[in-house]
Specification:
alpha/beta, single chain, seven-stranded mixed beta sheet, 12 strands, three-stranded antiparallel beta sheet, 16 helices
C-alpha cells in the first residue's frame, strides 16, 4: 500500500527524552529532565473530588457531543470569561495541540506567522497541514507587515514558549485589536496563562467580541492534567464554530467525557477550587525561585530577553545542552525554536517548573564551576 507522509520529523523533544532515559539506564543515576513542558513541582490532588462522581450514569457512558458537554462549557464560561461569553462559542478539544490542529484545518489560510522564537509544534503542524510557516521578530514588525498579510493566521503566545516571557496585557490587547480590525485571524495560544492568574483575570473577556480572534486553551499546564488531553477553543464567529465542530466530530467524535466531568468539578466546586489554588500557588512559588536562582548565578541568558523577563514555566540559559548533560540535566537547544539557529548557539531552553531543592542540587555544581 502507498503511504502519504506527513513530511514532519519526529519531535526533537521526544528524542531528547529517549536519550535521557537511555542515559539514566546506563549510568544508574537520576537525571533532571527539563526538556519537556511538564509541571513537576507537585501534582493536583483530585482523589477526593472523584469520589463524588457516579461513573455509572448515561452521561458519563455516552458520546460527549462534538462541541463538548454543555455543562462543562458553561463552567469554562464562568471561570475563564466571567459568564460573559456564549457557551456555544466554546468547543472542547483534546488539548492545546489538537486545538491548534483544528484551527489550522478550519481556517482558509495558506500561511501561519509565529514569533521569532516559537514552539516547534507550530512549525510541525504547519508542515502536516501543508501550510507555509513564517516568523515576525517583534510586534512592531508584525504591525508593519499586517496590512499586507493574505490568507495568514498570526499566532501570539503569552507567556511564551520557549522564552517564558510575558508581555503586558495592555500591549497584547492593542496588538490583537489592530490585527482583528484588519480581518487577520489571530490565534491567542496561552496554555500557561492560567497557572499565574485565576477567574478574576479579565483579558479573555476583552477578546470575546473579536470575530477574528481564536483563544486556544489547555488544562495541561494550568492545572497539571496533561494526561487528560483536554482544552478548549473560543471564537465568536459562528461559521468558524460550526466548521471547527465538524472537524472535531469527524476526527474524534468528541473528547473524553470523564475528563470533562473532573475538570468541570475543579472549575466549579469549592473543593475543586481549593485543589487548583494549592497546585497553582505551589508551582508558581518554585518556578519563581528557580528563575531568581538562575539570575543570581548569572546562568539566565538575559541578553536574549531584551526588555522582557521570564515568568513562565520556561527559561533560556547560557549553557550548552551538551554541557548540561554532563551534569545529568536535559534541556533543548534553543536552535530548535528558531529559524535562525546561528545567533542562539550555546543557549538552551529548560522547563523551570520543578522543585527548587532538586533544581539547585543539579545546577549548583555548574554554577560553582563557572566561578
Amino acid at each position: 500500500m502507498e503511504i502519504r507522509p506527513t513530511g514532519a520529523p519526529i519531535s526533537t523533544i521526544i528524542e531528547i527524552g529517549n536519550k535521557a532515559r537511555k542515559h539514566q539506564e546506563q549510568t544508574k543515576q537520576s537525571n533532571l529532565l527539563l526538556h519537556a513542558g511538564i509541571n513537576s513541582v507537585t501534582q493536583i490532588d483530585i482523589n477526593q473530588l472523584v469520589q463524588n462522581i457516579d461513573f455509572n450514569t448515561a452521561t458519563l457512558q455516552n458520546y460527549p457531543g462534538s462541541a463538548g458537554r454543555l455543562d462543562f462549557r458553561e463552567a469554562i464560561n464562568r471561570y475563564y470569561f466571567g459568564d460573559k461569553a456564549d457557551p456555544t462559542n466554546i468547543l472542547v478539544t483534546a488539548g492545546g495541540t489538537n486545538g491548534l490542529y483544528v484551527a489550522f484545518k478550519t481556517l482558509n489560510i495558506s500561511h501561519i506567522l509565529t514569533p521569532k522564537f516559537y514552539w516547534g509544534t507550530y512549525k510541525m503542524l504547519s508542515i502536516v497541514n501543508r501550510l507555509q510557516h513564517k516568523v515576525y521578530s517583534d510586534f512592531d514588525e508584525l504591525l508593519k507587515i499586517a496590512p499586507k498579510l493574505d490568507h495568514t493566521a498570526v499566532i501570539i503566545s503569552d507567556p511564551g514558549n520557549p522564552m517564558g516571557d510575558k508581555t503586558e496585557d495592555a500591549l497584547l490587547l492593542e496588538i490583537i485589536n489592530k490585527l482583528d480590525s484588519l480581518g487577520i485571524p489571530v490565534i491567542f495560544d496561552a496554555p500557561y496563562r492560567y497557572l499565574f492568574v485565576n477567574e478574576n483575570d479579565i483579558l479573555y473577556r476583552r477578546l470575546i467580541s473579536l470575530e477574528n480572534v481564536i483563544i486556544n486553551e489547555s488544562f495541561s499546564k494550568s492545572i497539571g492534567l496533561s494526561g487528560y488531553r483536554t482544552g478548549f477553543l473560543h471564537n465568536s464567529n459562528p461559521l468558524f464554530i460550526r466548521e471547527a465542530a465538524k472537524n472535531i466530530l469527524y476526527c474524534s467524535n468528541g473528547v473524553n467525557v470523564v475528563g470533562q466531568e473532573i475538570i468541570k468539578l475543579l472549575l466549579s466546586t469549592p473543593q475543586g477550587r481549593i485543589a487548583m489554588d494549592k497546585y497553582k500557588s505551589e508551582t508558581v512559588e518554585h518556578v519563581a525561585k528557580n528563575i531568581a536562582w538562575l539570575k543570581q548565578h548569572n546562568l539566565l541568558a538575559t541578553d536574549i530577553y531584551g526588555n522582557s523577563q521570564p515568568i513562565g514555566i520556561y527559561a533560556v540559559i547560557n549553557i550548552d545542552a551538551g554541557e548540561l548533560e554532563k551534569y545529568g540535566i536535559f534541556g533543548v537547544p534553543l536552535t530548535y525554536f528558531t529559524a535562525d539557529p546561528a545567533e542562539v548557539s550555546g543557549l538552551t531552553r529548560i522547563c523551570v517548573s520543578t522543585r527548587h531543592d532538586t533544581f539547585v542540587q543539579f545546577f549548583d555544581p555548574i554554577a560553582k564551576s563557572r566561578n
